[in-house]
């Protein structure tokens, strides 16, 4: 009896629209970057679909990062979306994402009824998915759009790549798993360190005259995800809005929210040596490849340490493994100044740093075998990297 | 004192040659396919390098599969190898393979001394590796080259692809993890089955008039590796030599040895129904894609089963998951003959079979909902696939 009663209960249309399959796939791919299968909040396993009068908004979130993708009714004279009834639904992210990619036609029709049953049709294919209640989906933070900072997309991607690799992967000091941003006088300084190495970059940004932000720490994971969804070839700018606990990046048809990390980021300036005893200038690529080869015999030992020493006009890189054997390689230096030096360091840290540098040559400044040393691309003052040596000599 | 005595002991040159880096990398990549890191025989973690008067031979083996790659002194008027002293050495496969890929120059010099220390130089890079004794490396079986069977490379790759997917992955009946080959009257019949589905293909081969081989069972894993190292665009033929316990495939500059599986392969002919109650002809691609979509809601349940039924002029594919929802799709058939039918089967098995078919249409012949059914590409009599249904209707 209950069943019959249920079936007779009237179901009304809660949402209905049709959309370009390609645009839907693109939007779903973007918001999927924020969806985690390991979430403890069931509704966050879903993607929220909102059909508004001006287009479709998709939202994915793991509560640390939230991504909104917007598909307008039309753009560049192409029609992408046609709304028959505005409304919302939440659909299981994994299966919805798989389905839209495999639909047979260029157009997808989606309609949800008042019982949350969502009918997706495309060509002769018809899916009826059990939806989740959009009212249960958490609201994204309302961020006041004052004090917008603006930066070109490709510059933002570069500075993420050149700093985020140095964040800590250990939760011992959670604040070190993020990149520290400081903004003052139209300059953005980014620093990351895991306390064994450090990477920093400064760039000019557009901002209101007195816009000053200190101790903004953005999770490294968030920045990696942001970088992935930003269009590589976009000449456009990204707008950034910062609040006490959140940062919002706005690109074309995309909004990326990340929580900020609590805690005070350590003062890294005091780590940077201000004198140097041995200075070398060397080809970035030549040095990187020699380190890469030497590391092949250092991998088996857990620390992956190679030895480095200055010779006349060149440097020697070597490593050895009792089991495998030894490797030596001399690399011509452009310039060697100061004291002779023998030092050992992690090949991985050095390769991480060198692979982020676009300049042809790098300058490495040492202050003895036991002190941190600095790596700077020749001709680019905005980038500075630091590595702590390992005691072996 | 022992140390000093050792150091004064004379070491003599055991092997010396130089080789094109590209050719060495190619050869190493081929023989690495046979090297397993999980071997219990320490010498088999290495690659054997033999410098003969006519070129370099590399050997890799996991004792089930052995691969020999040969690099001649010269080919097509290009000089690839220069031998200064013939000899042999065995080097750790993983590290040697990593090293050769990353060497800086187009030429690689390799020399081993009587203590097995092997010096690899290229450009300014110098590796001294601890070698292993080549005398300890197992000898490959000597195979008498009578009764050679010949088959075109691309045909061999096709028939591997069209049968090997159906081998059993369970060791319950080891003989089913292989593909059964039978050769008679210039015809090669290949069959694989895991007892839930079957794939078979017959092709013409060149062989001596009376060459007859029965119950040859080649491990599926071996055939997969063989297929990977055979050149895709080679118009050349592969020579095949079969002995009681081994099979040898010879391609240009490559020899691939595999052991054969013991045991009697079951008679699969009796599985093939010789009558049919419902026959359909349908677009391979259209049917495959519809099954793929329907399987999206069947994945969560472990068996991945979809339902199929004949309608007037079309077939309906459907599946449902209590949690996710339902999917229906009708696909136009080219032809439907015989009784109406409702049947359920594994979407995975069907997709595995259909994705190996190059014909535009397939014919499926059913003999009722509980009996195995046959899939045959229209216009290609050499291929036959069989799937056992699942009881759900």
Automatic annotation (TrEMBL), chains A, B:
GO MF term set: 3'-5' exonuclease activity; DNA binding; DNA-directed DNA polymerase activity
Matching Pfam families: DNA_pol3_beta, DNA_pol3_beta_2, DNA_pol3_beta_3
Domain DNA polymerase III beta sliding clamp central per the UniProt entry, residue ranges: 150-267
GO CC terms of this entry: cytoplasm; DNA polymerase III complex
Keywords: Cytoplasm, DNA replication, DNA-binding, DNA-directed DNA polymerase, Nucleotidyltransferase, Transferase
Signal peptide residues on this chain, from the entry's feature table: none
SUPFAM superfamilies the UniProt entry points to: DNA clamp
DNA polymerase III beta sliding clamp C-terminal domain sequence ranges: 270-391
Keyword DNA-binding listed: yes
Matches recorded under InterPro entries: DNA_clamp_sf, DNA_polIII_beta, DNA_polIII_beta_C, DNA_polIII_beta_cen, DNA_polIII_beta_N
Superkingdom, taxonomy of origin: Bacteria
Subcellular location: Cytoplasm
Role this protein plays: Confers DNA tethering and processivity to DNA polymerases and other proteins. Acts as a clamp, forming a ring around DNA (a reaction catalyzed by the clamp-loading complex) which diffuses in an ATP-independent manner freely and bidirectionally along dsDNA. Initially characterized for its ability to contact the catalytic subunit of DNA polymerase III (Pol III), a complex, multichain enzyme responsible for most of the replicative synthesis in bacteria; Pol III exhibits 3'-5' exonuclease proofreading activity.
Record text on subunit structure and interactions: Forms a ring-shaped head-to-tail homodimer around DNA.
Entries under NCBIfam families matching the protein: dnan
Protein name as catalogued: Beta sliding clamp
Organism: Scopulibacillus darangshiensis
Taxonomic path: Bacteria, Bacillati, Bacillota, Bacilli, Bacillales
């Amino acid at each position: 009896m209950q069943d019959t009663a249920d079936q007779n209960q009237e179901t009304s249309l809660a949402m209905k629209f049709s959309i370009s399959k390609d645009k839907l796939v693109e939007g779903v791919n973007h918001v999927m970057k924020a969806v985690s299968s390991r979430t403890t909040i069931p509704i966050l396993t879903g993607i929220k679909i909102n059909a508004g009068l001006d287009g479709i908004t998709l939202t994915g979130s793991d509560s640390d990062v939230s991504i909104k993708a917007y598909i307008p009714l039309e753009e560049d004279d192409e029609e992408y979306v046609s709304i028959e009834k505005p409304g919302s639904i939440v659909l299981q992210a994994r299966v919805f994402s798989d389905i839209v990619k495999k639909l047979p036609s260029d157009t997808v029709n989606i309609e949800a009824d008042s019982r949350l049953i969502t009918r997706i049709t495309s060509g002769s294919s018809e899916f009826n998915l059990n939806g989740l209640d959009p009212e249960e989906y958490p609201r994204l933070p309302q961020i006041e759009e004052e004090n917008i900072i603006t930066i070109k997309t490709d510059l933002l991607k570069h500075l993420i790549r050149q700093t985020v690799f140095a964040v800590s992967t250990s939760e011992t000091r959670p604040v070190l798993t993020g990149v520290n941003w400081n903004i003052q006088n139209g300059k953005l300084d980014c620093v990351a360190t895991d306390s064994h190495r450090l990477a920093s970059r400064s760039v000019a940004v557009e901002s209101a005259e007195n816009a000053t932000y200190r101790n903004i720490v953005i999770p490294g994971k968030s920045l990696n995800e942001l970088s992935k969804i930003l269009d590589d070839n976009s000449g456009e700018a990204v707008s950034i809005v910062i609040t006490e606990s959140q940062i919002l990046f706005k690109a074309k048809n995309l909004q990326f929210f990340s929580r900020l990390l609590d805690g005070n980021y350590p003062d890294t300036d005091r780590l940077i040596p201000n004198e140097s005893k041995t200075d070398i200038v060397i080809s970035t690529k030549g040095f990187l490849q020699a380190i890469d080869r030497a590391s092949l015999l250092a991998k088996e030992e857990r620390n992956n340490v190679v030895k480095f020493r200055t010779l006349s006009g060149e440097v020697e890189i070597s490593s050895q493994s009792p089991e495998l054997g030894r490797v030596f390689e001399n690399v011509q230096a452009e310039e060697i100044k100061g004291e002779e030096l023998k030092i050992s360091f992690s090949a991985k840290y050095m390769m991480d740093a060198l692979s982020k540098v676009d300049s042809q040559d790098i300058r490495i400044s040492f202050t003895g075998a036991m002190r941190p040393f600095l790596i700077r691309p020749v001709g680019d003052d905005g980038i500075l990297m630091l590595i702590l040596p390992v005691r072996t000599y």
